[in-house]
Amino acid sequence: MAKEKRSLSGKVVAITGGARGIGKATATALTRRGARVAIGDLDLEVADRTAAEIGGETVALPLNVTDRESFASFVDQVEERLGPLDVLINNAGIMPVGLFMDENDASAKRMIDINLHGVIFGTKLALERMLPRNSGHIVNIASQAGKAGVPGVATYSATKHAVVGLTEAVEAELTDTGIAFSVVMPAVVNTELGSGIDDSGALPKVEPEQVAEAIVEALETERFEVWVPKISDYLVRTTRLLPRRARLAIAKALKVDRVITGADPAARAAYEDRAARSEPGLEPEGEPAREQSQVAD
Question: Catalytic residue among 71, 156, 181, 227, which?
Answer without folding.
Answer: 156
